[in-house]
Design brief:
The complex is a heterodimer of chains A (about 90) and B (about 190). Chain A is an all-alpha fold and about 90 residues long. Chain A is built from 5 helices and no strands. In chain A, α1 (about 5-15) packs across α3. By secondary structure, chain B is of the alpha+beta class. Chain B has a single domain (about 1-180), classed as Ribosomal Protein L22, Chain A (Alpha-Beta Complex), CATH 3.90.470.20. The longest helix of chain B has 23 residues, at about 40-65. Helix content of chain B is about 30%, strand content about 35%. Chain B starts with a strand and ends in a 10-residue tail after the last strand. In chain B, a hairpin with a 2-residue loop joins β5 and β6 (about 120-125). In chain B, α3 runs antiparallel to α4. The chains are: A mainly alpha (about 90), B alpha+beta (about 190). The interface of A and B includes residues 40, 44, 45 and 48 of A.
Chain lengths: ~90, ~190
């Protein structure tokens, strides 16, 4: 999956928790889950759980630490998908 | 440096399904999960611990210049026996009237600690049937001096709180919580 395809997959996952819908429409790699999308921090856990389900991966707490932006999420998903392929 | 965090309990019930598989495990340590699941009101205990973590994180992240989402590395210790004798000064202001009530009515107070690595953060939390509010400081002197104000949607401060230079801001659901260390807070004005 390309990074762009990953963003397309991420968008509907983020949508239910996003308070700033305009920022979601303009989503890109620099988009910050809290600062831009105004996702409440307790819902970050739901984002992580939804990403795990959607991609069939497990995101350990260490990886979750960095998952505050679209680019960080993409990197974590790519890494975890590669681990599965091995 | 001071921190604070508020949870609007009805908004939290709408926004989060804490019974969802994996939810507790991603946020709470094993000891905290045990405390939550064995308490009489798991949902209240959960958000109590959450506000403690958030309030401490707000100081920690500013102190260290670190931004991360690592709730399980913030370990809460809280005494769930009530400590009504040390209430922090919280006022709940209901907009838009001038009606102001002390939050103390029918609420419970808890004191606790949050450990992040070797650092200790002291917390005091107020819980009633609508909200949970935790304040946090790194030492006893500061936490004793914190003035806290909780405002509901529609209050003019919702849009103008920056001018009052609060030490920390928390916003959730219908509530805005502001904390101040110095006497310059708008809370002393009325």
């Amino acid at each position: 999956m390309t990074r762009e395809e990953l963003i397309t997959h991420l968008k509907p996952i983020l949508a239910p928790y996003t308070q700033n819908k305009e920022a979601l429409e303009a989503i890109n790699e620099d988009t910050d889950f809290i600062k831009d999308l105004k996702i409440n921090s307790a819902n970050l856990v739901d984002v992580v759980l939804d990403v795990e389900e959607e991609f069939g991966i497990e995101i350990d707490n260490h990886s979750m630490e960095k998952m505050l932006t679209v680019s960080a999420a993409i990197e974590i998903i790519e890494t975890k998908l590669l681990e599965i392929d091995r | 440096m001071i921190g604070n965090d508020i949870v609007d309990l009805s908004a939290a019930a709408r926004e989060s399904n804490w019974e969802r598989k994996g939810f507790l495990k991603k946020i709470f340590t094993k000891d905290e999960q045990l405390l939550i699941l064995s308490s009489q009101q798991p949902e209240v205990t959960l958000w109590l611990l959450w506000t403690m973590k958030e309030a401490a994180y707000k100081i920690y992240s500013r102190q260290k210049g670190i931004r991360c989402f690592a709730p399980t590395s913030l370990c809460c210790q809280v005494d769930l026996t009530l400590s009504n004798n040390h209430p922090h000064q919280t006022t709940l202001t209901v907009a838009p009237s001038t009606f102001k009530c002390k939050l103390n009515t029918g609420e419970n107070k808890y004191t606790g600690k949050v450990l992040i690595g070797d650092d200790i953060y002291l917390t005091e939390s107020a819980v009633n049937d609508r909200l949970i509010h935790s304040i946090c400081a790194t030492n006893k002197a500061d936490i004793g001096q914190i003035k806290a104000g909780i405002f509901t949607t529609g209050h003019p401060l919702f849009h103008h709180y920056h001018q009052t230079k609060p030490g920390c801001v928390s916003h959730h659901g219908s509530f805005l919580a502001l904390v101040y260390l110095d006497s310059g807070s708008p809370l002393s004005a009325n």
